[in-house]
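Listing S7. Sequence submitted for prediction.
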Amino acid sequence: MKTFVLCLLVAGALAAPSRKPTFRRGLNRIVGGQEATPGQFPYQLSFQDTSYGIDFHFCGASIYSEHWAVCAGHCVQGENMNNPEYLQVVAGDHILYHDEGHEQTVTLSKIILHEDYNSFTISNDVSVLKLSEPLIFNDRVNSIPLQSKKDFLGECVVSGWGTTAEGGQSPDNLHYVDVPTVTDAECRKHYGDNEIEDSMICAGLPEGGKDACQGDSGGPLACNGHLTGIVSWGLRLCPSQLSRGLC
């Protein structure tokens, strides 16, 4: 079974980033999906580093409001925390690094990392990003509400510009994949009781083949039009063993 584990979001998480989900970073990717249509996911952000003189996409993020975005903690740990002026989000994007006339690029003014984030275990893998100027909402750029409680909602969607194969190249165009959420009991059967906490949510298919990849970390898991989770970590699960490699 192949699943990936996401930070669970609940309404009110942005107002006071206190005790929230616990995760470990692993293999995150959009695999087995398809190209999105322009504007299909108006809440999707490309999170980019500009410190080397180029715009480099390294994580996804989601629009919470005109002034705030939601991302994973592991995307902003370390030096990035102290230099938000070298980080930017791009809203309304579809083809990375290609100006289509709908993009809104905004630098960050502040990063708030979850107060209980643990960089060793990647626990509480949540961050919020304050934008230096407000986004202008339209049909290509808009927010997504947070899910208010943990539910297993069946088919959900993950989107991003992550690689389409392990170790592969990132696509130019935004991709997405539909995946079902998995109950805690089912997830613990494959990951172990101590690896999956109540604050996590798992998504994936028993046969594998559809999930997230490098570059998708921090991006949205959306269920029924709500932001349910953040792409955080995952393992490849072989039929008879747990492993961090390919089966």
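Caption to Listing S7: primary sequence and predicted structure tokens for the chain studied. The longest helix spans residues 184-191. The mean pLDDT is 76.
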